[in-house]
Amino acid sequence: MEFFLVQSLNGISYGLLLFMLSSGLTLVFSLMGVLNFAHASFYMLGAYLAFQVSTKIGFWPALVVAPLLVGAIGMLVERWGLRKVHKHGHVAELLFTFGLAYLIEEAVHLIWGRAALDYRVPAELDGPLFQIMGPQYPIYRGFMMLVSVAMLVSIWLALTRTRIGLVIQAALSHPQTVEALGHNVPRVFMLVFGGGAALAGLAGVIGGNAFVTDPGMAASVGPIIFVIVVVGGMGSLAGAFIASLLIGCMQTFAVSLDWSLAGVSIAQAAPMLPYLLMVLLLIFRPKGLMGTREG
Amino acid sequence: MKYAPLNLGRWILWSGAALVFLIAPHLFSGGFALTMLTQMGTLILFALSYNMLLGQGGMLSFGHAVYSGLGAYVTVHVLNLMGKGSFYLPVPLLPLVGGLAGLFFGVLFGYVTTKRAGTTFALISLGIGEMVFACVRMFPGFFGGEAGVSTNRVVGQPFLGLTFGPAIQVYYLVAVWCFLGMAAMFALTQTPLGRMANAVRDNPERAEFVGYNTQHVRFLQLVLSSFFAGVSGALSCINFEIVSEENVSAIRSGGVLLATFIGGVPFFFGPVLGAIVFVFFVVALSGFTKAWLLYLGLFFVLMVVYAPGGIASLILMQFPVIRAGRWRELLVPYALAALAGLVVLAGLIGLVEMVYRLSEQGASTVLTVLGVSFDARSAPPWIVLGAVLAAGLAALRAAMRLVGERWGTIQLDLQAKAAP
To answer: Any idea what the Cα angle at residue A133 is, between residues A128 and A138, rounded to 5°?
Structure first.
């Protein structure tokens, strides 16, 4: 029982982290039609910048500064890169972000080296939060959940209650009309792209020290969040939320169970479970859990 | 039956290609050149098969290494069984085994991936690639775990006196298969299926209204493409005598995408150029600098932004100008742009190498270029190289503007002449 409770909490906190990544990806995709292949690279940049900033001025300022820096990089990328490729179509945009992912990974190799960084959980968040009949639950996991939920609520409020949020929502479905009403839609695009990057950066700040900060972190998380976007249905935030929690819990439970099937234990099969889920879903429900778009 | 005149240009081009395959090892002799040529042949086949998806079918795949890699795994096991004397198959026919294996997995995975097109197809192909990669670790019995499966290509009776021990024999095996594959893939572009693939790429809705099932067309195109990918996988297995998880990895899938795009997706022969450039980058440049992947990535991004048609389009663009005899007007702007580009390159490479020296543990921070030594930990080289880079970029911008102006006037003149 306690095993189930702790694993569920771990799964939910991992799932919420995944949703912080996939929500930015989904927002950018539904607004601009661009699937940002470098999204996980912004997650990695967030962790690395947070490490760099936290060694100078501490973890708490880094929690704010690093995502802002990543967001600024994202805006620069949109303004000076993506916008130039836009006229060549979506495939060119996807290829551009694919190349960008290469560049960011190599830049990280060059600047910080190939080994994992010693990016640690701050001392005040290190330790058990509570104890359930044996296993302890770390404070940091609780903190991660808190940050994720706070972030998601504030995004939801910003999208539905503020003026710029309404403009973004309108630009999602009717960019021409919004432009005709006098709003600068390219600037909205730039802001959303930067915002998505900043979200990924924040996920990096709180995920980098909980898991691992090394140059392979983008390549290991990237495919998972793309699977989430496909499973949830392209462009659906609600679908991405369900899929994130589903895959987060599935991964967490799989690595801790010792059942086995045909000589392969569940823990060994854990890395391929999300992909298997995607394949099954595509066979039986090709548009994804909550998807509406075809093609 | 329509009247088709003898296409002389095409015959000359293909005979020329065959001739290049034939004499290349004699032009560039030495073991290193031969290794590179063999790898180029393998990658040419792989990149052409990839372009059957991206260029001809409009399917951006991030997991094409699955088909070549699994083809290679099956080939390596067949080769090992032959080594044990279980049965006999001439080594030159092994690529057929790899191709059939690729075809089989193309049927299996293609059924899922081709359900969707566009961005979703790209993501699904990525997911399938990751799934297969995860399988390699899960089933060490077949995939050999992290070490991979090694083999020996010299098995059984020599085939027509060929043992395939010496590298030159392997080169010619690769060359023959590469040439046959090129011809077959070109022939496929001329078939109704090849044409329908183009239609599905350009306008799936209209293709559907004409009465074609777009999913079926994509599926057939992917299955055929995975056959050729499997052939190239088998060739790489024969060449390296080892197949490991790297063969099905996302790195390999990304590599073939880079090679194909750099060469030129809209043209049949584009991937050939791309494969040659890519192997040069990987084999030659990686010996000089650890940052070669950064340079390759930068080159790729620049191509995406400024030359989406790849190297092939840049070359083909020049032909009308040369035919009109106007190329002399472009010589000076091109030379200026090349010069400015070299300056940019010098500044960039200098900065990148300094960053690298600073970050690597135990590396000397003192660099020597043309007899001048400087320390990456001091400020002056940063300032000088930064200034070189900035000046180069400004000069390149000006030179490109000049190129653009000249190019524009020539194009206007040519158009005016074409439509009086």
So the answer is: 15
pLDDT digit string (tens) for B168-219?
Answer: 888 889 999 999 999 999 999 999 999 999 999 888 889 889 888 998 999 9
**Residues A86, B47: Cα–Cα separation, whole Å:** 25
Stated pTM of the model: 0.88
Task: Decide if B140 is inside a domain.
Answer: yes
pLDDT, residue A131, reads: 66
**pLDDT score recorded for residue B361:** 66
Which residues in chain A are closer than 8 Å to B359, comparing Cβ atoms? 110-113
Q: Is pLDDT at A295 greater than 70 in this prediction? A: no
Provide the token pair at A224: 């998972």
Picking from B395, B364, B367, B394, the residue whose alpha carbon sits closest to that of residue B380 is: B367
pLDDT at B408 (0 to 100):
86
Q: How far apart are CA A82 and CA A97, in angstroms?
A: 8
Are B350 and B291 in a shared domain? no
Res B1: pLDDT: 45
**Å between A265 CA and nearest CA of chain B:** 9
Is residue A20 within 8 Å of A200, Cβ to Cβ? Answer: yes
Confidence of residue B383 (pLDDT cuts 50, 70, 90): confident
Kindly indicate the confidence band of residue B342, based on its pLDDT and cuts at 50, 70 and 90. Answer: very high
d(CA B174, CA B234): 10
- Residue B347 belongs to domain spanning: 324-418
CA–CA distances in Å: residue B167 to residues B29, B40, B148, B162: 12, 14, 22, 11
- Do A84 and B305 make contact, defined as CB atoms within 8 angstroms? yes
Asked whether residue B41 falls in the same domain as residue B107, the answer is: yes
CA distance B291 to chain A (A): 7
What is the mean pLDDT of the segment spanning B87-92?
Answer: 81
CB contact under 8 A, B301 and A278: no
From the number of C-beta atoms within 10 Å of its C-beta (0-12, 13-18, 19+), residue B380 rates as exposed
Residue B77 has pLDDT above 80, yes or no: yes
User: Do the Cβ atoms of A85 and B117 come within 8 Å?
Assistant: no
Nearest CA in chain B to A231: B124
Q: Which of A29-33, A225-229, B105-109 shows the lowest per-residue confidence on average (mean pLDDT)?
A: A29-33
Q: Residue B109's pLDDT band (boundaries 50, 70, 90)?
A: very high
Of the three residues B287, B314, B341, the one that is the final residue of a domain is B314
Q: Are B135 and B264 in a shared domain?
A: yes
Q: How many domains does chain B have?
A: 2
Chain A interface residues facing chain B, Cβ-Cβ under 8 Å? 29, 35, 81, 84-85, 88, 90-92, 94-96, 98-100, 102-103, 106-107, 109-113, 219, 223, 226-227, 229-230, 234, 264, 268-269, 271-272, 274-276, 278-279, 282-283, 286, 295
Distance from the Cα of B412 to chain A's closest Cα (Å) equals 22
* DSSP label at residue B159: B
B65 and B203 in one domain? yes
| Confidence class for position B222, pLDDT limits 50, 70, 90 | very high
Q: Are residues B137 and A268, on separate chains, in Cβ contact within 8 Å?
A: yes
User: Which has more pLDDT, A253 or A103?
Assistant: A103
Q: Is the Cβ pair A230, B124 closer than 8 Å? A: yes
Domain co-membership, B258 together with B378: no
Q: Contact B293/A102, CB-based, under 8 Å?
A: yes
Tens digit of each residue's pLDDT (9 = 90 or more) over B263-274: 999 899 899 999
Q: What is the CATH number of the domain that holds B141?
A: 1.10.3470
Smallest CA–CA distance, residue A10 to chain B, in Å, is 23
Q: Which residue has the tokens 């070359």?
A: B315
Chain B residues in contact with A110 by the CB 8 A cut-off are 291, 294, 352, 355-356, 359
- Kindly list the residues from chain A whose CB atom is less than 8 angstroms away from the CB atom of residue B360: 113
Q: For residue B130, which residues of chain A lie inside 8 Å, CB to CB?
A: 223, 272, 275
Last residue of a domain, one of B314, B347, B364: B314
Shared domain for B103 and B121, answered yes or no, is yes
| Tally of helices (H runs) and strands (E runs) in chain B | 16, 4
- DSSP bridge pairs for A127: none
Position B99 in a domain: yes
Residue contact A286–B116, C-beta within 8 A:
yes
In order of start, what are the domains of chain A with their CATH numbers?
2-117+137-284 (1.10.3470)
